[in-house]
Amino acid sequence: MDRPDRPESCGLHVGLIMDGNGRWARARALPRAEGHRRGADAVRRAVEASPELGITTLTLYAFSADNWRRPADEVATLMRLLESFLVRERKRCLRNGVRLALIGRRDRLSPALIREIEETERTTREGARLYLRLAVDYSARSAILTAAGKLGSERCDESGFLQRVNRACHSDPETPPVDLVIRTSGEQRLSDFLLFESAYAELLFIDTLWPDFDGEDLRRAVEAFRGRERRYGGLPPAETIPAAS
Ligand code: IPE
Ligand code: IPE
Ligand code: MG
Fold first, then answer.
1. I want to staple 124 with a disulfide (CB 3.0 to 4.6 A). Which of 93, 102, 168, 170 is the partner?
2. Alpha-carbon span 138 to 169, nearest angstrom
3. Predicted confidence band at 8 (pLDDT cuts at 50, 70, 90)?
4. Candidates 19, 137, 179, 217; catalytic one
């Protein structure tokens, strides 16, 4: 599933765990809902900055399968914000060549939200500059379990299984593995996000709270990523001895 031979020119897949909306609001004595609302503005900034930074796939963690544990009014706010985000951003995505899709379960979302999701996916399906995946009611463990369950006694290699994991969460099966996972707000955990896809991802944890995140933060993150050495279990290039011919 990982491609040590992946050419430098290939676009990046960045996964973003957008965390810290609640703390952003609390620091300003505002309701948590306001943090989420401002978080939606930060999403637009990240999406706008991505193509120029060489990002061709961006997966944003918007609502985890475990976030249903939050109070009903907070869940309702998040679902409302998601719906209005889809309606509002559809045209902008179309103009900017962004293909927007939701990954995760759909059977627990409201019919109205499903309609907006399907309409957005249909409208933006030709977008070729950026594949934007919003992870909603998403659990990486569930996607892996579903893919494994469907595999039964069949065999497949890692890239075949990646396609199955992608299908299990309604993603384009050809979505590549993740190159870089960024989590905002200082927390250092993955919270059930893209566990199979991130096997060799670089991880970056930054203190910025999500509503404050902007294009410059993303640029710095990508720059830090480009300074990392990815080895995929091998040796750094300088220490690799060519095989005797
Ligand atoms: C991220 O911000 C948004 C979601 C998880 C939906 P939080 O709401 O988790 O913010 P904190 O972690 O409480 O600050
Ligand atoms: C992860 O954040 C989910 C999203 C960012 C949507 P949480 O704030 O829900 O994660 P935990 O509970 O701190 O691990
Ligand atoms: Mg949080």
1. 93
2. 8
3. low
4. 19
Tokens for 108, please give them. Answer: 């627990």
Instruction: Please pick, among 21, 41, 66, 67, the residue that the annotation labels catalytic.
Output: 67
User: Which residue has the least CA distance to atom 11 on ligand 2?
Assistant: 191
Strands 12-17 and 98-103: unpaired
List, in order of start, the domains of the chain with CATH numbers: 21-200+207-228 (3.40.1180.10)
Q: Name the band, by pLDDT with cuts 50, 70 and 90, for residue 242.
A: confident
For 167-216, how does the pLDDT look when each residue is reduced to its tens digit (9 = 90+)? Answer: 999 999 999 999 999 999 999 999 999 999 999 999 999 999 999 999 99
Give the amino acid at 41: D
User: For residues 230 and 126, what is the distance between their CA atoms, to the nearest angstrom?
Assistant: 32
Own/partner long-range contacts of 198-206 (Cβ < 8 Å, ≥24 apart): 198/15, 199/1, 199/2, 200/2, 200/230, 200/232, 201/15, 201/177, 202/228, 202/230, 204/180, 206/182
Q: What is the pLDDT of residues 99-130, one digit of tens each?
A: 999 999 999 999 999 999 999 999 999 999 99
Residue 13's beta-bridge partner residues? 57
| Nearest ligand, measured from the Cα of 210 | 1
